[in-house]
Amino acid sequence: MLDSKKVSLGIAPIGWTNDDMPDLGKENTFEQCVSEMALAGYAGCEIGNKFPADREVLKRALDLRGLTVCNQWFSTFLISRPFEETAGPFEEKLDTLKYLGARVIGVSEQSYSIQGKKQPIFEGKHVMDDREWNLLCEGLNRLGKIANDRQMKLTFHHHMGTVVQDEKEIDRLMAHTDPDMVYLLFDSGHLSFCGIDPEKILNRYVSRVGHVHLKDLRSSVAAEAKAKRLSFLDGVRGGTFTVPGDGDVDFKPIFEILGGRGYEGWVVVEAEQDPAKANPFEYAKRARAYLRAAAGI
C-alpha cells in the first residue's frame, strides 16, 4: 500500500486527446478534460497539447478545479544536435513547470525515435554506439544539474521505440548518470510492452525513481501488434494500453515496493487509448476506484 501523505495521484490528459495522434479525441476540449479529471478525484495532471500555452491562464483554470501540474514531457536530442539546442528550451520549460507547481520534468531522448513512425515497433530501433552513450549520459547530467539548481528533478522516461527502451539500455543509463542529477521515470506499461518485468526494474532502481506512470497492458493486443508488425501508434489505436486494473500488469508488487521503500512523489495514471472506444471519464473513474482499493490512495 502507498502512503497517501507521501504520494499524490495524478492523471495524464492523453486519454482525452492524444498528442501524437490528435485525431483521437479531437472533439474533447481542454475544459472538459480538466473538469473530468477533478470530478474523477485526481489531485494533479500532466500537460497535453490542448492546454493553454499561457501559464497564468492555465494555472487559473487548474486552481479553479483543485488540480496541480506534476510533470510534462520534454524531448531531448542530445545525441544528434548541439547541447545548447536542448538546454535553452529545457530551462524555459523548467521555469514554466515550477510556476505551475511541478517539481519534476520528464525527459525522453527523441533522436532517431521510431515511436511515431510507420514501422514495426520491434524492428529497426536505433542502437547507440559508445560515443552516443557518452553524449546522452553527459548531457543528461548537465541538464540534471540545471534542474537541480532550480529545485527540480530531471526524470528520464524509458519509452518504446526510443534509444532507451530495453533492460540493458536502462541499466547502462542508470550506471553512467549521476544519481543526484538524473532520476528514473518508471513506466509499468512500457516495460511490460517491451517484455520486461516491471517489478524487477523497480526493485533495482526504486531509490532513483522520481516519477511514476501507472499504465496497464492488454497482453493479447500487444502480442497481436508484435505478430502483425504494427507500429507503436497503430498498436495504441488497437488498444495496447489501458488504465491500471483493466489489463494484465500485476500492480500489487509495484505498490508494495513503492510503499515499502517510502516513495514520495506523484503516481500518474497514463493510458493512451482511443476515447471513442474507451470513454476517458469512465476509465479515469475506474482507475481511481482501483487505486483506492489496491494501493490505498
UniProtKB/TrEMBL annotation:
<dbReference type="GO" id="GO:0030145">
    <property type="term" value="F:manganese ion binding"/>
</dbReference>
<dbReference type="GO" id="GO:0050114">
    <property type="term" value="F:myo-inosose-2 dehydratase activity"/>
</dbReference>
<dbReference type="InterPro" id="IPR013022">
    <property type="entry name" value="Xyl_isomerase-like_TIM-brl"/>
</dbReference>
<dbReference type="Pfam" id="PF01261">
    <property type="entry name" value="AP_endonuc_2"/>
</dbReference>
<keyword id="KW-0170">Cobalt</keyword>
<dbReference type="GO" id="GO:0019310">
    <property type="term" value="P:inositol catabolic process"/>
</dbReference>
<protein>
    <recommendedName>
        <fullName>Inosose dehydratase</fullName>
        <ecNumber>4.2.1.44</ecNumber>
    </recommendedName>
</protein>
<dbReference type="InterPro" id="IPR030823">
    <property type="entry name" value="IolE/MocC"/>
</dbReference>
<keyword id="KW-0456">Lyase</keyword>
<keyword id="KW-0464">Manganese</keyword>
<feature type="domain" description="Xylose isomerase-like TIM barrel">
    <location>
        <begin position="37"/>
        <end position="293"/>
    </location>
</feature>
<dbReference type="InterPro" id="IPR036237">
    <property type="entry name" value="Xyl_isomerase-like_sf"/>
</dbReference>
<dbReference type="InterPro" id="IPR050312">
    <property type="entry name" value="IolE/XylAMocC-like"/>
</dbReference>
<comment type="pathway">
    <text>Polyol metabolism; myo-inositol degradation into acetyl-CoA; acetyl-CoA from myo-inositol: step 2/7.</text>
</comment>
<dbReference type="InterPro" id="IPR023952">
    <property type="entry name" value="IolE"/>
</dbReference>
<comment type="similarity">
    <text>Belongs to the IolE/MocC family.</text>
</comment>
